[in-house]
User: Which sequence fits this backbone?
């Protein structure tokens, strides 16, 4: 299953973390570059640095 998590704050990070242990394809959209790096390094999921409320980011 493909799952998009918008935002990697406290809640979004933990959702992505739990789902990353399953066989889902996880994509996190986060606008803060430092948070993007942390999520990529710690969770190993695909991260897109963008504003998740932007329709262009969701394409």
Assistant:
């Amino acid at each position: 299953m493909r799952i998009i998590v918008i935002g990697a704050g406290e809640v979004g990070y933990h959702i992505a973390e739990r789902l990353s242990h399953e066989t889902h394809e996880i994509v996190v959209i986060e606008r803060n570059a430092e948070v993007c790096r942390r999520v990529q390094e710690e969770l190993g999921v695909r991260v897109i640095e963008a504003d998740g409320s932007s329709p262009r980011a969701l394409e």
